[in-house]
């Protein structure tokens, strides 16, 4: 066992020296990088602390965070036979890791429309894996600390302190803290009763309590959260308005014409839009609850429930010492998710990693990346794997999936949304958008495709084939367009 741990220690320390200001460069070989790193075991022996002072029995590996990334990392430890008696997970949540997208895609449905509920969506059911309930962690010897977030880290002593005062020891640490919801300032009503943010089950439960009594709902934000929450509110038959400052829905991805198709569908289902609008403040009634949303132009919208979906921020505190990326936020890591501090890794939403295929640093807030980055990191930590993470960006959404909905909407996007676009189809029954740059197919989005069609998308986006643009533009249907694109592979 000592030789195995020694090998893992060397792998864990394949990063730059502690005081280095730069990440490992893809131009260096992993072997060359390892030869210049500090010995992890020596680093640990410099500090002798009584084992009785630590709250965790399992100290070899510690994961901080209780979301998707933590759940998939735990499964990978189990698959390698390295979890039992070795792994601890520290979470601010009261629940074992779960598939977070379910909160806005299914959890918010009214009771008569079969909403998602735990334990139904614990990881790793989202990728077809085993449902990891709290008992699963016990059975696999994984030590869980619930509702006790980490408040401080001592990098020198390799210890963590939690909010309750627990002192935890780690050999290798994986930061999987994800993101926190961006909030409106308290001075403009961001914390009023009836104002909701959604990142975890507790948030979702509080929102459901409001929706049960609501009449008029205002959703602030025209991105993923805004679109998914508004669709759920319609399932409750509530007067629903989406307010956002952009010109159209999901402006970071959708083209204007594509967004128009979705906006028309939402309007047909009763959703109202206020585009190009900004919030001045939220106003409370005599009972202290939110009553109105006041816009910058002085107009007001009546609301008894307001959901804020204006983005998220990486939860980097208290791990700033591991190195932050100033361009995209998050904790800097290399292609094996190693930070600049020996023995510390970061995965999922919080990691600023090299996006290999596009040669840029990125931070991706997506469940697929949370899963894959966690698995890649743990495999690199526990084995001789030195393959650099090569992620293909992908995004998706599912809305109006409750019982009785006139139509369920599900789209997927793969690749990069750069260059000019070609749109094929009329949205009913399906539509596809292709992004082409310098003759290469860079990205593709498909709405309401078949399983076989969806499987083609990542192949196209990763291969980036040269396509016949004129032929694609003249395609009579989505099926024909995908066939043309597929023949270019």
UniProtKB/TrEMBL annotation:
Monodehydroascorbate reductase 3-like C-terminal domain sequence ranges: 392-471
InterPro entries referenced in this protein's UniProt entry, alphabetically: FAD-oxidoreductase/Apoptosis (IPR050446), FAD/NAD-bd_sf (IPR036188), FAD/NAD-binding_dom (IPR023753), FAD/NAD-linked_Rdtase_dimer_sf (IPR016156), MDHAR3-like_C (IPR048618)
Cofactors, names only: FAD
Residue span(s) of domain FAD/NAD(P)-binding: 61-373
UniProt keyword Chloroplast present: no
Record's GO cellular component terms: cytoplasm
EC number: 1.6.5.4
GO terms, molecular function: monodehydroascorbate reductase (NADH) activity
Signal peptide: none
Keyword NAD attributed: yes
Keywords recorded for this protein, A-Z: FAD, Flavoprotein, NAD, Oxidoreductase, Redox-active center
One Pfam entry name: MDHAR3-like_C
Family note: Belongs to the FAD-dependent oxidoreductase family.
Name used for this protein in its record: monodehydroascorbate reductase (NADH)
């Amino acid at each position: 066992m000592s030789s195995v741990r020694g090998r893992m220690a060397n792998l864990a320390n394949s990063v730059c020296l502690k005081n280095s200001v730069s990440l490992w460069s893809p131009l260096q070989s992993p072997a060359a990088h390892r030869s210049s790193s500090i010995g992890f075991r020596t680093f640990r022996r410099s500090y002798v602390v009584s084992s009785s002072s630590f709250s965790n029995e399992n100290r070899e590996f510690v994961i901080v965070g209780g979301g998707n990334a933590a759940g998939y990392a735990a499964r990978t430890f189990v698959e390698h036979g390295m979890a039992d008696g070795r792994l601890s997970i520290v979470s601010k949540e009261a629940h074992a890791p779960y598939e977070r997208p379910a909160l806005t895609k299914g959890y918010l449905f009214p009771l008569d429309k079969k909403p998602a509920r735990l334990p139904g969506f614990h990881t790793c059911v989202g990728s077809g894996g085993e449902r990891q309930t709290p008992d699963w962690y016990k059975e696999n010897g994984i030590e869980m600390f619930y509702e006790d977030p980490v408040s401080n880290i001592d990098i020198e002593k390799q210890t963590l302190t939690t909010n309750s005062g627990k002192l935890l020891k780690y050999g290798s640490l994986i930061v999987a803290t994800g993101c926190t919801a961006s909030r409106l300032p308290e001075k403009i009503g961001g914390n009023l009763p009836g104002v909701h943010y959604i990142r975890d089950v507790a948030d979702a439960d509080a929102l459901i309590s409001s929706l049960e009594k609501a009449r008029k709902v205002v959703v602030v934000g025209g991105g993923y959260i805004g679109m998914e929450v508004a669709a759920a509110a319609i399932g409750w038959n509530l007067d629903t308005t989406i307010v956002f400052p952009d010109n159209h829905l999901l402006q970071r991805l959708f083209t204007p014409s594509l967004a128009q198709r979705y906006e028309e569908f939402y309007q047909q289902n009763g959703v109202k839009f206020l585009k190009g609008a900004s919030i001045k403040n939220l106003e409370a009634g005599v009972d202290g609850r939110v009553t109105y949303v006041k816009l910058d132009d002085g107009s007001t919208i009546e609301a008894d429930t307001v959901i804020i979906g204006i983005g998220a921020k990486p939860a980097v505190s208290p791990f700033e010492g591991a190195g932050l990326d100033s361009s995209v936020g998050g904790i800097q890591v290399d292609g094996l998710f190693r930070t600049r501090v020996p023995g510390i890794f970061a995965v999922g939403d919080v990691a600023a990693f090299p996006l290999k295929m596009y040669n840029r640093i990125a931070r991706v807030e997506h469940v697929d990346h949370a899963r894959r980055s966690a698995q890649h990191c743990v495999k690199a930590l526990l084995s001789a794997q030195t393959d650099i993470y090569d992620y293909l960006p992908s995004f998706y959404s599912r809305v109006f999936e409750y019982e009785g909905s006139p139509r369920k909407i599900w789209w997927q996007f793969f690749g990069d949304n750069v260059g000019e676009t070609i749109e094929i189809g009329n949205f009913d029954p399906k539509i596809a958008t292709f992004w082409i740059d310098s003759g290469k197919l860079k990205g593709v989005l498909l709405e309401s495709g078949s399983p076989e069609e969806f499987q083609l998308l990542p192949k196209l986006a990763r291969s980036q084939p040269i396509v016949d643009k004129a032929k694609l533009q003249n395609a009579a249907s989505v099926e024909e367009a995908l066939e043309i694109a597929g023949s270019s592979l």
